[in-house]
Amino acid sequence: MQKRTGFARSEEVGVPDSLLMPAGGPGSNFQKQASKESTDSENWPHQATAMNDTAFGTFIEDLGKGQIVGRQVLASPVLGEIELTINLSKFGITVSINRGKNLTIRANVNNTPAPYVKLYLMDGKVCVCKAKTQPSRKTTAPVFGQAVEFQENFKHRTLQITVLGDCGRMERKLFMGIAQINLDKLSTLPQPVTSWYKLFHNSSLAPGLAPIRKDSENSLLGGQQQ
Q: CATH 2.60.40.150: does it fit domain 16-221?
């Protein structure tokens, strides 16, 4: 896959077999989507030089390996955790979504949703590529056992993980938490890296690294379908 500087919005389609790497046996699969470049991403510099110790979350204990947050995370409750295995190589980025635990459901939601995960590979504010898991069973401790490979360079890139809940075809998708991972930080560790990542509200995002997509609280509470 060659890096593109702009993406057109499209319908979700199945990932080619060459990109699927089942971690939990037959039936594990992702849907991969084209992406849209942020309108303010032009002239946006690489963020690696701008991130300081604060962005790496040194003031918060027990973050996942390479996880980055902003100071606003101090006002955000932990919404749950997700376990990932990430392998960085010259051939690309392999992300295994293993399982989640202690996922939080809003008080006004009557039924337990079926959690699923959206992954965004970010270059500054540009989404290079993305994928999503199939929904798990309805639970707050989902087991995914799914993996995907991005055939992209990991340098100066951020991986955004958004957990959503499927409450049914006619219902809104439920935001369940977000995490950001600095891949340059992970590249200094022995590969692959397995870690639990804490999920927070959007306000936890590191300064200057806000995603182009907040398919999360703002849009979902407004009633938009994802």
A: yes
